[in-house]
Design goal:
Largest sheet: 5 strands, mixed
Strand order of the largest sheet: 3-4-5-7-6
Order of helices and strands: HHHHHHHEEHHHHHEHEEHEE
Radius of gyration: 35 Å
Structural class: alpha+beta
Number of helices: 14
Mean pLDDT: 81
Number of strands: 7
Distance between the termini: 26 Å
Helix content: 55-70%
Number of domains: 3
Low-confidence stretches: 1-13
């Protein structure tokens, strides 16, 4: 199948003049994560207080049967808090967490809703988040805020040291005092050392903030998002849709190729043979020439049918495996191709077919759009994965944007838990790496 080339200019990453350790205190990411930590304290206090109090009241009212609907209502409220936390995480932590799976209601009415809410794993995960995020938020706030404030205050101490002699009547920031001896940071050397200590704190604290925010990301994703099972179900449903769409597209392609190719040629062949039969008695020589021409059409029709069968599943792949099959399609590429297949055994037939058509499409892409003078195909096994890598020295700029041939190829690989990675800087070379499950 033909694949859109997707070649174009690739913007280069912006170069930074400062190393990361010097950029970190001024980066927006650091301030957003610090804002998350600061806001987490009041949010976690509110969440913890609500969750613990409502759970305790619900447990106490279980004997009156009022505790069950009250607990379900508190779970619904916690889901609302969770939605707020996911929005906050998306804005401040740059992490997008999908909403958890909806409540499964087995029957209509309030009883069905209450039962579904209490049986939902997402409801209990929201309760766990409310309980366990509180001590972590307190710890993060008490660690990050003093370090961040102290670091900036000491770093900027030369700018505000004048406040002490002018308004407090002392020489500078008091480091020690017991009524008899006092030590103030007031000399030029002491002020410089204070500023250096503040600089070190200011440079180190962003990495502490990032570590704290990383734990928050895990908590939000693990407790406020969909469960791993639900995510897998959604992924499988999406993959099933891709497989169905791909199969439908393949059937349409086969129908089109049959209609426009072999079928049309066979129809013309039948008409030519009919005319030859009519001329057989009155003009044998003309009839013989028409039969010869029809014989040539038969050969062309057979070749088209062979090509079509090869496009569905090549016989050489079934009989001799990937090495011979890939060498066969490599010989049809406009650029010389080196094929290296390092496999001691064959993978599952379906995976082998996907690997074949992946390389076939990538080589077609090279022939049509890359302007390459050489390409290579490498196939090997890495534990339980089949690895493919196609490299060409063409003009580069291959784009895996949505709607391109590479994006559709990535979707097809994703349907079987495969991965497609494209490295194609402007000017080349282009390296496309595909990873498929072995399933031998």
């Amino acid at each position: 199948m033909a694949m859109d080339h997707g070649y174009g200019a690739v913007p280069r990453a912006r170069a930074h003049l400062l190393p990361p350790v010097l950029r970190a205190p001024l980066e927006g990411r650091t301030w957003r994560e610090f804002g998350w930590i600061v806001l987490s304290l009041p949010m976690s206090v509110l969440l913890f207080s609500f969750a613990v109090s409502m759970t305790a009241v619900s447990a106490g009212l279980l004997v009156t049967f009022l505790g069950v609907p009250l607990l379900a209502g508190s779970f619904a409220a916690l889901r609302g808090f969770g939605a707020v936390e996911r929005v906050r995480a998306r804005a401040l932590l740059d992490v997008g967490v999908a909403a958890p799976e909806p409540v499964c209601v087995s029957r209509s009415g309030a009883a069905g809703w209450i039962g579904g809410m209490l049986k939902s794993g997402a409801s209990w995960r929201h309760l766990l988040y409310a309980v366990f995020h509180f001590p972590w938020a307190v710890f993060g706030f008490c660690l990050a805020v003093p370090l961040w404030a102290t670091g900036w205050a000491l770093l900027l101490y030369p700018l505000w040291q004048w406040v002490f002699p002018m308004y407090a009547g002392i020489d500078g920031l008091q480091l020690y005092g017991d009524g008899t001896h006092n030590f103030y940071l007031d000399s030029a050397f002491e002020i410089a050392v204070t500023s250096v200590v503040g600089l070190l704190l200011t440079l180190a604290t962003p990495w502490i903030i990032r570590g704290l925010a990383g734990v928050d990301r895990l908590m939000v994703a693990g407790l406020l998002g969909p469960s791993r099972l639900a995510s897998r179900v959604v992924e499988l449903e999406s993959d099933r849709g891709v497989v169905v769409d791909t199969a439908a597209a393949d059937l349409r392609r086969i129908e089109r190729d049959l209609h426009d190719g072999a079928q049309a040629r066979l129809v013309a062949l039948a008409m030519d043979l009919g005319l030859a039969r009519e001329k057989l008695a009155e003009d044998p020589d003309a009839a013989a020439a028409m039969v010869d021409e029809a014989h040539g059409e038969v050969k062309l029709a057979l070749q088209e049918l062979r090509d079509l069968a090869r496009g569905i599943h090549p016989a050489v792949l079934t009989d001799r495996g990937l090495d011979a099959a890939l060498s066969s399609i490599a010989s049809r590429c406009t650029a010389p191709v080196t094929v290296t297949v390092d496999l001691t055994e064959r993978p599952a037939e379906a995976i082998e077919g996907i690997a074949y058509f992946t390389v076939s499409e990538l080589l077609q892409n090279i022939s049509k759009h890359a302007h390459a003078t050489h390409a290579s195909v490498d196939v090997w096994r890495s534990r339980d994965r089949l690895m493919l890598q196609v490299v060409d020295n063409g003009r580069g700029g291959a784009d895996q944007a949505v709607g391109s041939g590479l994006a559709r190829l990535a979707e097809r690989l994703g349907a079987v838990d495969g991965i497609l990675a494209v490295d194609s800087p402007a000017g080349g070379p282009t390296t496309v790496t595909a990873e498929l499950p072995w399933r031998g």
